[in-house]
Amino acid sequence: MARVTVELLRPVPLAPLTVTARLVRPGKKVQLVEATIRAGDVDVVRAVALRLREAALDFPATALGPTDRPPEGSAAPRMTREWPVNFGDAVEFRVVSGGPGTDLGPGTCWIRLAVPLVAGEEPSPLQRVLAAADFGNGISSPLGWDRYSFINPDLTVALHRPARGEWIGLEAVTWPDPAGVALADTALYDEGGRIGRAVQSLLLDSR
User: Fold this and answer.
1) Cα–Cα distances in Å, from 158 out to 84, 165, 168?
2) Nearest CA to 9 among 48, 46, 49?
3) How far is CA 77 from CA 37, 100, 102, 164, in A?
4) Cα separation, 59 vs 89, whole angstroms
5) How many domains, the chain?
């Protein structure tokens, strides 16, 4: 899975959901898959994924790029807010700098999906990456969280290899504009180094 773009069309309710998927573009080397999540008769999430064939190629290790990754960081306390249980309760954080709703500026942390996405199933490497990548916007804030909100109606993740291990590293920067639009740009890592990048378009507003 080389690239996934998720469009968050509406708030997803804590209610029974229907997931459908279809192959939009079949092929031996390139495929396009589309998935939709519905709450009742309403589409709440739509996603498109690009799948590329894998093959064993022979080239020097120096072509793999740098293997540097962020430091391990330290465990962060559970976030306490006056809102119902949400996706933030499903992950663990190891903060290196910045953090969810805290320091201003870029943020770096490691995130682990603490519960299975589907009950009884071990999370896949892609599920772990996508769950973590959505926090790029949350760990990097150039403006005060008490005065401004950053809502991401989308998430695009591009990967050059599958993730290894349970912890996904994020180095995130958010770029705001006075016109009320921002962009969160996040480098993604695993225990072996860089694995890809995530981008989120942001609706910036005052509270």
Assistant:
1) 31, 18, 14
2) 46
3) 32, 11, 12, 25
4) 42
5) 2
Looking at residue 201, the DSSP 8-state letter turns out to be E
Task: At 102, list the tokens.
Answer: 């805290």
- Residue 74 buriedness (CB in 10 A; 0-12 / 13-18 / 19+): exposed
Distances (CA, A) of 52 to 103, 126, 156, 175: 38, 14, 16, 31
- CATH number, residue 13: 3.10.129.10
- Report the C-alpha gap between 63 and 93 in whole angstroms: 31
Handedness of CA 99, 101, 102, 106 (dihedral sign): positive
Nearest Cα to Cα of residue 173 among 183, 164, 188: 183
CA dist 46 → 40, 74, 149 (Å)? 15, 35, 23
Q: Tell me 84's DSSP state.
A: -
Q: Has residue 201 been placed in a domain? A: yes
* Dihedral over Cα of 57, 2, 67, 123: its sign: negative
**Looking up tokens 């949400």, which residue turns up?**
86
Summarize pLDDT for 53-111 with one digit per residue, the tens: 999 888 887 777 778 889 888 877 655 555 556 677 889 999 998 765 566 789 999 99
Domain, as residue range, for 87:
72-207
Any domain includes 62: no
